[in-house]
């Protein structure tokens, strides 16, 4: 489907579910971006879930979002259980604005929901020649090291920086071996998941997606990954006033109340310590790209290059929509 037609369709669906036209536009742009960068698990496949949560009154389509100014650099946002895209849009814009004024912007958000891809927001800061760190927590999926029960989310860690080139450096990675969206899709389609990414509820390795969803996902790098998940839970949950310690509700399965996810946006000017950052980052990347390559490797890529190339290629094409997703769209429109 052509992007403009799809964007209008998504906006119409969100407006039908009581979002304002402006909020619907913010949501549609984030969802389409996920499709264009090759992350469909965070795109159209979640649209029905957002709408279901609005219908069940656990997402507030008409939020009264409050922004508390703590200093010229710091703000705290109560998102009033808004859809996550809207809360995050306010958060990153405020962090960018503060950083432009003072050199540093810190925004914590509570009472939010799932906001899509962290990299989408990091890129907004990078386009303003700013460095960004972004954290958000998620529903239980990973067990703390040594535990059998899942508690931490797949809690992504995101970092972005300008590169003095067209392609930004965007590291956006969950701390699980694979993201939960891929396991959900495998569960729906009856496909196996890779070995070594999950345990069943008895703590035994499994490649059955349904058993993995009932069990625990494995973190990257063993106890280190579990530690990183804990760190993100503290920064985005404990620190901001959001839910934490396994209290974030699963958006697909738990409609007993709002998710109350926490987000943390940290944005900085590149010239806080040196005036030639752009020259230095260019030199840094150039040195690494010149390293001897493994057999079969044509180029050493930095985080964000593959995503940028996918985005560029997908811009020229129509967005492919599966029969299942198209069926969801048709139902949501009526």
How would you describe the overall organization of this protein?
The model has no long low-confidence stretch (mean pLDDT 96). The strands form 2 sheets. The protein has a 7-stranded mixed β-sheet with strand order 1-2-3-9-4-5-6, with helices on both faces. The chain has a two-stranded antiparallel sheet with strand order 7-8. Helix 4 packs parallel to helix 5 (118-126). The chain is α+β, with helices and mostly antiparallel strands and 334 residues long. Helices cover 40% and strands 14% of the residues. Strand 2, helix 4 and strand 3 (104-112) form a beta-alpha-beta unit. It is built from 11 helices and 9 strands. It has helices at residues 3-16, 21-36, 47-55, 84-102, 118-126, 180-189, 209-214, 223-238, 277-289, 305-315, 323-333, and strands spanning 66-69, 74-78, 104-112, 130-136, 157-161, 169-173, 198-199, 216-217, 261-269.
Query: Which class do the helix and strand fractions yield?
Result: alpha+beta
Q: SSE order, as H and E?
A: HHHEEHEHEEEHEHEHEHHH
Rg calculated over all Cα atoms:
20 Å
The major sheet is characterized as: 7 strands, mixed
Principal-axis shape: globular
Instruction: Return residue spans where pLDDT drops below 50 for at least 5 consecutive residues.
Output: none
Mean pLDDT: 96
State the helicity in percent bands: 40-55%
Strand order of the largest sheet: 1-2-3-9-4-5-6
Strand composition percent: 5-15%
Distance between the termini: 19 Å
Query: What is the number of helices?
Result: 11
